[in-house]
Amino acid sequence: MTRYAVIMAGGSGERFWPWSRSHLPKQFLNLLGESSLVQQAYERIINLFDTQNILVVTGKEHAALAREQLPSLPQGNLIIEPQGRNTAPCIGLAAMHIRKREPGATMLVFPADHLVQGQAEFLRCLERGIQLASTAEVLVTIGIVPTRPETGYGYIEREKDALPGTPLTFKVRQFVEKPTTNIALAYLRAGRYFWNSGIFAWQTDLILKKIEQQLPELYRGLTAIAGHIGSDGEQEAVDSIFPSLPSISIDYGIMEKSQEILVVQGDFGWDDLGSWAALAACFPKDQHKNVIKGEYVGIDTTDCLIYGQGLLIATLGVQDLVIVQAGNAVLVCAKERTQDIKKLVQSLKDQGLGRYL
């Protein structure tokens, strides 16, 4: 079967405010290295897929940015959402595009904004997932071997025995929501739980059948759009219909309600980079356990992430903080609260302070 890859590059990256802004969200930032996260995601799979078979989904306000950063992406392979509606509509729209091109194709789906350190093992897991998905009517996901009792991720519980072949693959017993610290510790000790990476492989016809069965309202809207794909009126149809589609994740809408799911065990240095604290863990620390980027002077400062863009940051007698200066805004946040930065962003919206977003 023909294989396609879909890179999900939507989202506003609000947890990385104030560096990530509405006009330049985190997937288009050089958070790690000399290229942006979406560029790294694209380069990561370029040898596994024909360029013509790589699709990128992003928001209308970032389409020009995506084209600028991915110049080798074929013009017709950028799918533009007029409004974010979560992952199920995003994946469903991409599936409709693929089915229009090649009925019966297998598709791989993954987010643009993740950290992957072990490229070779990552590709081995993707290849295994694609092969499994292309030969049977199964939904395949990549599960990450947990390294800590992480409460910010969903988990996947596997069955006891592995299926034949490598990398190790198991039937899925259940998907589990983000746990408390004690439960996450229990998962870590049990040894049969994976982090949910949000990376999937399946036959295009199968995922659309699942959407039709479990999310019929979404399927009706996608079908209405599908009739216009490839025509001059395609984007107009998407702009008209897509914002009215139900906003729901593929995990909640499909995966948690399905039975025939396999999980490929992944152990390749993965993180979803969901917060400043997660990003800090990717960089070396100084003798005081601080991560410093930019011009900085500090005394009695420990275990902080300090990031500046052009202005001096000075600290005295603080610990366990995230301090970020970017453009016209400064963030000071307890490390343990970085997942809540979205609340700050919402407060800025509520107070009419959009110039800082």
Indicate how many domains the architecture comprises: 2
Structural class, by secondary structure, is alpha/beta
Please name the CATH topology of the largest domain: Spore Coat Polysaccharide Biosynthesis Protein SpsA, Chain A
Average per-residue pLDDT, rounded, comes to 96
**Proportion of strand residues:** 15-25%
User: Which homologous superfamily in CATH is the superfamily of the largest domain?
Assistant: Spore Coat Polysaccharide Biosynthesis Protein SpsA, Chain A
Helix and strand run: EHEHEHEEHEEEHEHHHHEEHEEEEEEH
Top-tier CATH class of the largest domain? Alpha Beta
What Rg is obtained from the alpha carbons, in whole angstroms? 21 Å
| Number of E-type strands | 17
Q: What proportion of the residues is helical, as a percent range?
A: 25-40%
Number of helices: 11
Q: What is the CATH-assigned architecture of the largest domain? A: Alpha-Beta Complex
Shape descriptor reads globular
> Strand sequence of the main sheet, in spatial order?
6-9-7-8-10
What's the end-to-end separation, in Å?
44 Å
In this structure, how is the largest beta sheet organized? 5 strands, mixed, barrel
Unreliable residue stretches: none
